[in-house]
Specification:
With 404 residues, the protein is of the alpha/beta class. It is built from twelve helices and 19 strands. Strands 1, 12, 13, 14, 15, 16, 17, 18 and 19 form a nine-stranded mixed β-sheet that branches.
Length: 404
């Protein structure tokens, strides 16, 4: 496929030189691209702190690299078990981005004052509070709680809906009611509100070859941002009337950083995918980035003219099934999947003129569709600066953890 990035041939040569001593398959992170992406996220946040979404990274060395930069503060974890692990490793501010039914995790949290001070759990239903109470055992530590506001745009009386099905709390009044439920229940402290607008932050508005769809996405997102800014502000006012000591209001994601940060009600913005720039984040009009995470597969067969077969490759991303969930053959440019086979678990045929220049053992470089899910396939990321590998960092998987 044609590249939207300036020096693909030079990048390929650089990556090949840096990893010449490695046998593919393997994964890499280009630290220069990672740092450039981090700097751009900070610029877009306009002075508001960025909370790193660990789901999109899943490598402690890279989480720590981001957090060491001015402008980043705190982590948004995707499971309670992960949050406990990160906090035990020294992180002092971990927000669990999703409600949990992890009884062992809650018991551990309630029994340890340091963990309880470092970890905030997500709630959007009073029944979850009862679950946590039942799970805490003899633990007496106060549990820090964040409420999630549903951000979906609802039109035509709710018959038309844009946005993920997450929290049931859509109105300011509903959020305030659950805030009161938290305050009435001993052993809990309400500290935050979160509202993730995935239909803005995670949906590209420049769909290749689809100008009408792209225009439609932009119209929807403009309306969604305007509606949510008003409702989020009202919801925060309603919760602060109940809990005036609220510590943070979290919103946004990679695709909406500058828009979310501009809202007075928001105190911090979440982002993770923008650090590594997977392929799903190529198609935005408001920002760009450099691909930082790639994986290399070796050419194992040459089945005919204009075709090679690489080892592995069947690494689809989560979400509604479709071609956009597959990794993309990135370097050399011009390779494509065989439509009859796609990306295979053990082998993947690739077609296109560049195939005739590839020899057995040569690398084809791919980009994953979604950011952190690449780390579920590889034990380590080889960290590249310039044309050399400067270190190798274990992924969560490499440290023996697959939290989901």
């Amino acid at each position: 496929m044609p590249s939207a990035f300036p020096h693909p041939a030079a990048d390929r040569a650089r990556y090949d030189r840096a990893t010449a001593h490695l046998d593919a398959p393997f994964a890499v992170c280009d630290l220069e691209a990672f740092d450039a992406n981090a700097a751009d996220l900070v610029r877009r946040a306009g002075g508001k702190p960025l909370r790193v979404a660990s789901k999109s990274v899943r490598c402690r060395a890279l989480l720590e690299r981001a957090l060491a930069r001015e402008g980043f503060h705190g982590v948004m974890a995707f499971t309670l078990a992960e949050a406990v692990w990160l906090a035990r490793g020294g992180l002092a501010d971990v927000l669990v981005g999703y409600p949990s039914a992890d009884r062992a995790g809650y018991a551990e949290l309630a029994a340890d004052p340091k963990l309880a001070a470092a970890v905030t759990v997500m709630v959007d239903d009073p029944a979850q509070l009862a679950w946590i109470d039942a799970a805490r055992g003899g633990g007496t530590q106060e549990i820090r709680v964040c409420l999630e506001l549903d951000t979906s745009l609802r039109l035509l009386g709710g018959r038309l809906r844009f946005g993920a099905r997450r929290s049931p709390l859509h109105s300011p009044g509903q959020l305030a009611d659950v805030a009161r439920a938290v305050l009435r229940r001993p052993g809990f402290r309400l500290v935050g509100v979160m509202a993730y607008e995935g239909h803005v932050a995670g949906v590209g508005d420049r769909v290749p070859g689809r100008p009408l769809r792209s225009a439609g996405v932009r119209v929807m997102q403009h309306a969604a941002r305007r509606e949510l800014a008003e409702r989020r502000a009202a919801a925060v006012r309603a919760v602060r009337a109940v809990a005036p000591d609220l510590e943070f209001v979290n919103g946004g994601g990679t695709g909406s950083v500058q828009h979310t940060a501009a809202e007075d009600a928001v105190t911090e913005v979440a982002a993770g995918s923008g650090l590594l720039m997977p392929r799903l984040f190529d198609h935005y009009t408001s920002f760009g980035g450099r691909p930082a995470a790639l994986f290399a597969l070796p050419v194992a067969r040459r089945p005919g003219f204009g075709a090679v077969t690489v080892l592995g490759g069947g690494y689809p991303a989560s979400g509604a099934p479709g071609a956009d969930r597959l990794p993309v053959p990135w370097l050399p440019e011009g390779l494509r999947y065989d439509p009859a086979e796609g990306a295979g678990e053990v082998q993947t045929p690739l077609l296109g003129p560049p195939a005739d220049d590839l020899l057995i053992g040569d690398r084809v470089w791919f980009r994953h569709a979604k950011s952190g899910e690449l780390a579920e396939r590889f034990d380590a990321l080889h960290l590249i600066e310039g044309d050399r590998v400067v270190s190798t960092a274990p992924t969560y998987r490499g440290e023996g953890h697959t939290f989901l």
